[in-house]
Design a protein that fits this description.
heterodimer; A: 176 residues; alpha/beta; Rossmann fold; 5-stranded parallel beta sheet; two-stranded antiparallel ribbon; 7 strands; B: 220 residues; alpha+beta; Ubiquitin-like (UB roll); Alpha-Beta Plaits; 2 domains; 5 helices; globular
């Protein structure tokens, strides 16, 4: 069995939804792969895997630690979706300072009661800038799109399961 | 009849034509962004880089000459185009899912055509001044690729001379020719050729966001 891990860092889980959009083909896939850490299994740490799919960019230290753990444990690491590839929508905060972002979200925003900036030690520390995953670790393949179409996941996994290099047809290359 | 060789195809050549014009007339595609028929070429984006008799040149500015051998569709040039596109992407903030031009954007289309899947380089995340002062037209400078088409269209077609490119190197930016530097203090209109000609989402008409549904846009 091929072991597959997936995770969403600074993403919206939209890529995971698109992954599931392959519908009945997903049933054929689970005959051939075993899911390790993934929102589908709720396993919290990643073991040795053949393939890792990473959705989302890096916005906090927890994202960074999870990404490094994926890189250490996955033979093939794939950046999935616009946020993993260029930071995406979360990276739009990069034009503001951290203080401005936190103030807008927790102090000055509309309808906020008892304004305070959360400081619970369990909350991961935010990175100054949101950045794509290739900034932190080596990435083997990229699946663009917001989200990538279900067909793109099929092409990717079909090739990887055969031990081949995935080649996305032009109609499956989209950035939105 | 004078001819030029484009990837081995012998193509007729008329007096005064550029390599790009020869190729377009013969229906041989050369990827390009800042070149648009009807406007004087200036070869700023370099996406139309080809190899003419073994030397790199931008097809849109290079005069075509009898007997030239032009390479277009080679792996070496594909890598050059891919690098150029990646640099254009990381120099700006091109968040396609949040851009109204997505689906009709020539930068995006050029990257699709070259099979660009990733940025490779570190994104720069610029923070240039946005201009939303005008009631009908908006400028997002972080999407500008400095093709200068708006500069030429405003000056030569609209007769208004509203746009210019200022600064050098990484500080290059689109500027507006008004005392305040704001679009609101110009006589620009949403119908101007300068607005329509923008290949990316840098100059947008307000109130038309996502007017065309996904799947029916120009390059869907």
């Amino acid at each position: 069995m091929i072991r597959l891990a997936t995770c969403s860092l600074a993403g919206c889980f939209g890529c995971h939804m698109s992954f599931l959009d392959m519908d009945e083909k997903f049933l054929a896939l689970v005959e051939r792969v075993e899911f390790d850490r993934s929102p589908f299994t709720d396993i919290k740490s990643v073991g040795k895997c053949d393939i890792g799919l990473v959705e989302g960019g890096l916005c906090n230290e927890e994202n960074l630690a999870a990404l490094k753990e994926f890189r250490e444990n996955c033979s093939i690491l794939v950046a999935v979706g616009a946020c993993a590839i260029n930071g995406g929508i979360p990276a739009m905060r990069n034009r503001f300072s951290m203080d401005e972002c936190l103030a807008e979200a927790y102090l000055d925003g509309i309808g906020i009661e008892n304004p305070q900036i959360p400081a619970d030690p369990e909350l991961p520390v935010l990175l100054k800038k949101v950045c794509p995953v290739h900034e932190a670790v080596r990435i083997d393949y990229f699946l663009p799109g917001c989200p990538p179409p279900a067909g793109a996941f099929e092409v990717l996994l079909e090739a990887l399961l055969k031990g081949e290099k995935p080649v996305l047809p032009e109609k499956l290359i989209h950035y939105d | 009849m004078k001819t030029i060789s484009l990837d081995g195809a012998m193509v007729p050549l008329a007096e005064g034509q550029t390599v790009m014009e020869c190729a377009l007339a013969a229906n041989i595609p050369i990827p390009h962004l800042c070149y648009l028929p009807g406007f004087a070429p200036h070869g700023s984006c370099r996406l139309c880089t080809v190899k003419i008799d073994g030397r790199f040149a931008s097809a849109c500015t290079q005069p075509a000459m009898e007997g030239q051998h032009v390479e277009i569709d080679t792996e070496e040039l594909r890598q050059v185009r891919l690098s150029l596109l990646r640099m254009l992407f990381v120099e700006g903030n091109h968040y396609c899912p949040a851009c109204e031009k997505s689906g009709s954007c020539r930068l995006q289309k050029a990257a699709y055509d070259e099979g660009m899947l990733d940025l490779h380089y570190r994104p720069w995340y610029p923070n240039r001044q946005m201009d939303a002062s005008h009631p009908d037209v908006l400028i997002d400078r972080d999407r500008c690729i400095f093709c200068e088409l708006c500069v030429k269209a405003s000056r030569d077609v609209d007769g208004k001379n509203i746009f210019g490119i200022s600064g050098r190197g990484i500080d290059t930016r689109l500027v507006v020719n008004s005392k305040s530097g704001l679009l609101a203090d110009t006589d620009i209109s949403a119908q101007d050729r300068a607005v329509e000609v923008c290949p990316v989402g840098a100059i947008l008409v307000k109130g038309r966001g996502f007017e065309v549904p996904i799947g029916k846009r120009l390059y869907d």
